[in-house]
Amino acid sequence: MRNFNFEMLIIAFVAASFLWTLFNIIKIKVTGIEAEAVVTRLEEHDTTDVDGLPCEYYEAFVRFQAQDGRMVNASLLNANLFLNVGDWVRIKYIPGREDKPVLV
Fold it and tell me: What share of the chain in percent tops pLDDT 70?
């Protein structure tokens, strides 16, 4: 019984994290400021999936000019597999939280 409760706690934490990230992405897409950004680098990360199988994903970093004129370097919250370094993309961000933009 104790292991079951711990497993349920872990599942609830993972589900809450997923929903929180999804909520933030939707909020930024609806209320965010749109800008053009260039992909500056891709970082490969190795991890395991829920079955313990190895998998990899890429974290995309972009550079863009914020509404106040500052140049911002940030990691995309919702990068996709088809990005390459040097690609220009449309993003949205929340003022004051420019470090977490999303692809439009």
Answer: 96
* Measured distance CA(36)–CA(45) in Å, rounded: 25
Which pair of structure tokens corresponds to residue 50? 């829920």
Structure tokens at 104: 């439009």
Write down the domain spans for the chain.
2-103
pLDDT tens across 63-92, in order?
Answer: 999 999 999 999 997 777 789 999 999 999
To the question of pTM greater than 0.85 for the whole model, the response is no
Please state the three-class secondary structure of the chain as a single string.
Answer: CHHHHHHHHHHHHHHHHHHHHHHHHHHHHHHCEEEEEEEEEEEEEEEECCCCCEEEEEEEEEEEECCCCCEEEEECCCCCCCCCCCCEEEEEEECCEEEEEEEC
